[in-house]
């Protein structure tokens, strides 16, 4: 059974439909989330994110955990009864049973220290449940490639990136905050900060996205044009199937560098908390949506706003699209700087790095920038 589970976690093809595999994998992932959720209830000081737990209700989380256990348990029992992928269903059922034995949704939470180093388990669980439900729904409604399954080739690698990039959220927040203050603290000017903080909300929101995207544009362009930086960014480009999960494939160094540089002007200019919160929601949505398997082009608005179509071209292997379409929010930046894709085709054909030299698998990709002899 362990060998089969290991093979599943490392195989790179898409899941075959109709044999219980898809249901089994969903049951197993849900069961694993239940187990992690129970652990987070037991050790909230180490396994939950302070910034996040302030905004959710623990009783709602208990309900959520309960229903996840019911669904994962129900699916695995159904598979066992039907005699399909019993090895997978039994693993899922075992995890649900273990979660229940460890207290399930009833684990009491007392007072706990709030200044401990932590892993963002709650952020991983909630974002995975929320994003997969919302974006898979949108992808089914407006599918670009209708025959591309949810569990498409290499989904395990991107899922692994998703997992790790969420777990290290505390470290990323700490490190980027520290770097922003150390490197750019000198630039903060009270006069400018006061003026920006008092701007009208919508003006400030436009300004924060514009400033962030200008920095993002030039950082992104540098990743493509400076060979040393391309080593890091090539990992993001190695994805060959575009969907909501694909954008998670990002080297942790890229995450740290880009985030520090984008946060720097936001901090220096002193935007209000409401504006920053709105920006974080937009950035979080667009980062996922732009990679999604949806056929959204937005008509003439596509020259202004970055759409999935615009960013799909950025990931394309087509000659006319190489090193183009860098913007993340405002497509007009690429038209302004002369890097927008011009093509007769509506959508690109193939995605990925030209020459396909980035290995598959999370750890291989983590090492790739340091070991590549290209
Ligand atoms: Zn790129
Ligand atoms: Zn991308």
Describe the structure concisely for a colleague:
It is built from 17 helices and no strands.
Bound molecule types: zinc ion
Based on CA atoms alone, the radius of gyration comes out at 22 Å
Number-wise, the strands total 0
Structural class: mainly alpha
In percent, how much strand structure appears in the residues? under 5%
Largest β sheet strand count, sense and barrel closure = none
Span between N and C termini? 39 Å
Shape: globular
Count, helices: 17
What series of H and E elements makes up the topology?
Answer: HHHHHHHHHHHHHHHHH
Instruction: Report the average pLDDT across residues.
Output: 93
Any low-confidence stretches, pLDDT <50, length ≥5?
none
Fraction of residues in H or I helices: 55-70%
Q: Give the count of structural domains.
A: 2
Keywords: Membrane, Transmembrane, Transmembrane helix
InterPro entries: Fatty_acid_hydroxylase, Sterol_Desaturase_Related
Protein name: Sterol desaturase/sphingolipid hydroxylase (Fatty acid hydroxylase superfamily)
Transmembrane segments: 21-44, 64-82, 87-105, 117-138, 159-179, 199-218
């Amino acid at each position: 059974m362990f060998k089969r589970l290991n093979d599943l976690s490392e195989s790179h093809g898409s899941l075959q439909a109709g044999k219980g595999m898809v249901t089994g994998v969903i049951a197993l992932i849900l069961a694993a989330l239940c187990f992690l959720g129970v652990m987070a209830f037991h050790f909230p000081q180490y396994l939950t994110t302070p910034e996040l737990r302030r905004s959710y209700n623990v009783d709602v989380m208990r309900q959520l955990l309960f229903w996840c256990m019911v669904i994962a348990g129900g699916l695995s029992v159904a598979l066992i009864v039907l005699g399909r992928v019993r090895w997978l269903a039994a693993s899922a059922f075992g995890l649900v049973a273990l979660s229940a034995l460890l207290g399930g949704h009833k684990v009491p939470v007392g007072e706990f220290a709030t200044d401990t180093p932590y892993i963002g388990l709650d952020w991983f669980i909630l974002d995975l449940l929320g994003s997969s439900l919302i974006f898979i729904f949108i992808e089914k409604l407006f599918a670009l490639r209708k025959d591309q399954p949810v569990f498409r080739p290499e989904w395990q690698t991107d899922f692994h990136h998703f997992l790790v990039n969420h777990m290290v959220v505390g470290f990323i927040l700490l490190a980027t905050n520290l770097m922003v203050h150390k490197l750019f603290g000198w630039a903060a000017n009270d006069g400018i900060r006061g003026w920006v903080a008092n701007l009208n909300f919508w003006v400030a929101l436009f300004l924060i996205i514009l400033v962030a995207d200008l920095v993002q544009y030039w950082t992104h362009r540098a990743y493509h044009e400076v060979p040393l930086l391309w080593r890091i960014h090539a990992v993001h480009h190695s994805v060959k199937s575009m969907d909501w999960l694909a954008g998670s494939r990002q080297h942790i160094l890229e995450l740290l560098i880009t985030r520090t540089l984008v946060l720097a002007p936001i901090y220096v200019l002193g935007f209000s908390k409401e504006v920053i919160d709105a920006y974080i929601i937009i950035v979080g949505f667009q980062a996922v949506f732009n990679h999604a398997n949806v056929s959204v082009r937005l008509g003439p608005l596509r020259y202004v706003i970055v759409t999935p179509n615009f960013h799909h071209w950025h990931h394309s292997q087509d000659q006319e699209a190489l090193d183009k379409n860098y913007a993340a929010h405002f497509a007009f930046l690429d038209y302004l700087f002369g890097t927008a894709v011009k093509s007769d085709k509506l959508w690109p054909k193939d995605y990925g790095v030209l020459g396909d030299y980035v290995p598959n698998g999370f750890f291989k990709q983590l090492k790739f920038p340091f070991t590549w002899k290209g």
